[in-house]
Structure prediction request, 174 residues.
Amino acid sequence: MDIYDWRKKIDEMDDEIVRLISRRAEAAKAIGALKRETLAPVYEPDREQSVFNHVRAVNQGPLADSEMQHIYERLIDVMRTLQKREP
Amino acid sequence: MDIYDWRKKIDEMDDEIVRLISRRAEAAKAIGALKRETLAPVYEPDREQSVFNHVRAVNQGPLADSEMQHIYERLIDVMRTLQKREP
Prediction:
């Protein structure tokens, strides 16, 4: 496979990654609504830590656990903003 | 569904997201090897821009395009580090 072929494959994977992140965002929105109902805080550091632990546990490389967590830190950041925004 | 149920679903989605990001990283490694063979630079701003454009084009919400790109900026950052590292 040449670089062009790999990039085509990456674009296909990105379709799927974007779709999954969007589904995850819908779930985060649903949780945000439940938090509002129960007056629970949006920022829950224990839950965020447990997401990072989970992600590190299922990661099998080639990225280091710290690199996968680095990506997830940004993802969780964006999800937190979404939970605060949505009515 | 209560918060616990949603979090179980999110954990399952994260399994899949981590798996896909790992497959994407394998493809980036393969491209890194091809770049080394051809002495092409790792950093290719045009390709990175085209990834962002693609991601924004397939994004259907609930995240804003700029939020999805924000996640991808971190992802691409990590992939670039991987391409530089791997022999």
Notes: The two ends of chain A are 47 Å apart (CA to CA). Chain A touches chain B through 51 residues (CB under 8 Å). The domain at 3-85 of chain A is CATH 1.20.59.10 (Chorismate Mutase Domain, subunit A).
